[in-house]
Each structure stands twice: as structure tokens, then as C-alpha cells.
Amino acid sequence: MLPSPPLLLETITRRVLSSSRYLNYSYPRASYLFFYTHTNTPPSLCGWRATFLLITGAVGLRSQNLLQNRMVSPAIALAFIPLLLTVLIRCRFYFVLFYRAVLVRIWRDWMTGLSREERAYQYVLTHATPGDPDSILEAFDVWCSRVEFISNIGPKKGKILDRLIMQQSPLTVLELGAHCGYSTVRIARSLPLGARVYSLEMDPRNAAVAEKIIRLAGFDDDTVELIVNPSDEVIPQLRSEYGLERLDFVFMDHWKKCYLPDLQMLEGSGLLGKGSMIVADNVLFPGAPKFLRHIRKSGLYEWKVHRATLEYSKGIRDGMAELVYQGTK
After folding, report:
1. Is 281 a catalytic residue?
2. Is 162 part of the annotated catalytic residue set?
3. Active-site residue flag, 256
4. Known catalytic membership, residue 282
5. Which of 23, 185, 186, 310 is 20 to 30 A from 218, comparing alpha carbons?
6. Does residue 311 carry a catalytic annotation?
7. Tens digit of pLDDT for each residue in 228-266?
8. Out of 203, 282, 318, 322, which one is annotated catalytic?
9. 8 A C-beta contact, residue 170 and residue 244
10. Active-site residue, from 201, 211, 281, 322
11. What is the pTM of this model?
């Protein structure tokens, strides 16, 4: 087990900067070697810990140079150290998320020539049982937890979604944002016989992956229809082009800036009936403040937010909004 962050930082800084064995390496490389040698940290985790140390160490070295050149008062410089450490410690989960979601993705995109979603599909294809939705979801969860981060709904919030669908027993479901098919499979496996999911995904490359995942899980076109178009183009056509008269359940997990305009389009379409349920993911992080403000002030919904943590992450608070449409005033 690693020591507390302040003690760890002090120990690392002293050893890296003073030990002769690290003098022939750059600061990032020395940080990496330190973690691997002294903390029993798995090599796969050394990267983000070394990145964290690089940030703090770079600031420390810069402060040391400024002090030596008498450009900054020692008292002023020392006053900022506790603040800097506090910010870095409190934001450590966001640094980890940035490393996993951005830096690792850029590196592996360049190394493999495949998108992150295509890499996830390859993993699921080789580790899951075809025709078994539970096995598909489990393989996804393992990959997203241990290999690369993907913003699926995840297992914890997924259980809330499962419960809501089973309570509602919807026959017609609209999903906004299929991404790579994880939530689509999760929804489809909980539906009653004869129900159908209309799943929208605007990115053709992601939609191709979602199509493979959905069919691998054993759902045909009669259960899940994948529509490759932006939501603002499809929603106005749901009645005329797809013959829908009512939506029993809507799941939103696409661009957060689209939550409010898409909800308002659904309100104006006449497809929401009394008792229709809308569930929106990630309303706290990254967040959808305009969406939440609208549902508070409109008076059209009974609503609440199910609080949880961000999928496949620790320490980042998130939540899922549950709305039940009450009809027009």
C-alpha cells in the first residue's frame, strides 16, 4: 500500500532529486523508475503516477530556480506550496481520468490505427459469449475498468437503469446516443416481449461498432433498430418516418449540450404521454445545468437525481436524472 499523498510526494521528491542512480535520466523517466522500484506499483500504473509527480516536480524545480535567482520572496513561494499540494491531491481523480480518457487514447489510436471503440469491440469479441448479453456487458466492464476508459453508463448506474426499465415495462424506447452499444444491450435485455428500441447514433464509425455489439448480443432488427443520424434530425421524423405514436421510455446519453433542445423537441412532438419516463446520464459530470434548470422550472415532470460516481472512476461525483412526464399544464 502506498503512503499518504503528502508523505509520498516528499519521499519521492527527495529520493529522485538526491539519489545518484537517477541523475542520468530525465525527470519523467526518473519518476517512472522510482515508482517501479520503490513502491511496488504495477508498470501499467507508473505512467499516471509519474505524470502526477512530473507536474509537482516541475513546479517545485521552477520555484527552486526562482528562489535561487531571487526573483520571488521565499515567504511568498512557501505560502503557495500547501495550496498547490491541496489542489493536486483533491484533483487527483481528475488527473487519472485525463490520463486514462485522453492520453492513453491518443497513444493507442496512434499505435494501433484503430478507434477506441473498435479496440473495445475486439476485446469483447474474444472475451464474451455470443448471444449472451450479460457476458457482453461483463467483458465491456472489464475492458473499461482495466484497459481503456469509455464513458458507458457502467455497472453501478446501469443497475439503476435496469430497475427503472423493469418497473416501467416500456414497449417503445428511444435511446439518444448508442455510442458503442453498451447501454443499448443493457436496455434491450430488460425489455418485455414485443418491445422495441430505437437507438440513435450520429457517428457512423461508432454506429458500425454498436451494430456489431448489438447483433453479437443476439438482438435482431425487430428488437433494436439502429438509426445513424443526429438526434435533431430524427426526433421530428419519429412519427412520420417511423410510425411512432408514443414513447414510453427515453434514455439520454449523447452530447450533454443536446439534452435540453432534444427534450424540448420531444415535448413539442406529442410523443410523450402522461407517465412517459426520461432518464438522462451524466447530469452532474460533465453536467447539464440548463437541462436541470428546465425540468425544475417547467412543472411538466416529477423528477429526481440518482447520485453516483462517474463510471469506471473513483472520487468523481455524478448522477442520473429520472423524469416522469405529467403532461402539459
Report:
1. yes
2. no
3. yes
4. yes
5. 310
6. yes
7. 999 999 999 999 999 999 999 999 999 999 999 999 999
8. 282
9. no
10. 281
11. 0.76
